[in-house]
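cron nightly-structures :: item 1 of 1
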Amino acid sequence: MRSLRFLLSRRWALFALAIVVVATATWWLGQWQFHRLDDRKESNAVVRANEDQAPAPVGEVLGTDTEVGEADEWRVVSATGTYDTDDTVIVRYRTRDGASGVDVVVPLVTASGTSLLVDRGWMATDARGLDTADVPDPPAGEVTVTGYVRADGSGDSTAVVDNATRAVSAEAIGQAQQREVYDGFVELRSEDPAPATALEPVELPELDNGPHFFYGLQWWFFGLLAIFGFLYLAYDEWRGGRSGDRPAAGGPKPPKVRKEKRTNHPYARMRAEAEAREAAERERQREDA
């Protein structure tokens, strides 16, 4: 049986180590995709359950000192108050179908004095951008709104500069405008009375499972492919006998076998025939003796 000692060489040991690293990484990436799939399913279940509920008063869902929980995302709430258009906030860098645009957030001041941040929708912009003066006015006077609860954004993108931001944060907007606000915000579903000019409504999240399942299988396939490739190359090396039947590099070479030369010269044939006759005669004499 041919030896497998070649696997102990430095070249093959490093090769095996690289395969272990690749296989481990692809296994972890596959697991990560399947965990994301589980999270997506849980999130979709929450959205479906919350969308089907009747609107709840905003005070029953949102507070002023508690963050929006995952179970409350996409809950439908209602509130009545007056829009404070002087503190309209533009949320920049929102695109739809490849078109540039912004979201328009307006504080709705409720009877308690606490403001609810309402994302009234999306509108397209041109290259020069958009100012608050370009935004269509919301309904004047007392307005009743219903909307989907959303959690605050985080990070530097929530900074409010000149009534503009890149991500909505009730805390950041409340501090910038020095007003008391409910935590989180709502994306408008309806308002009564209706505005003269409505913005594009909120796009609800897609409730499919996404590509995570197939991405996970893909990563695991890459890992198995790496292992199979290593085993095949090791088998090919073993079968070729590079460490057994063939001489090792730098080792002594096997002696060459001297081949007998053949000739058709008449004298050589006569000599060969004479030697054969002499050998036959000697063999006969030994038998007679």
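cron nightly-structures :: done
Residues 37 and 212 are 5 Å apart (CA to CA).
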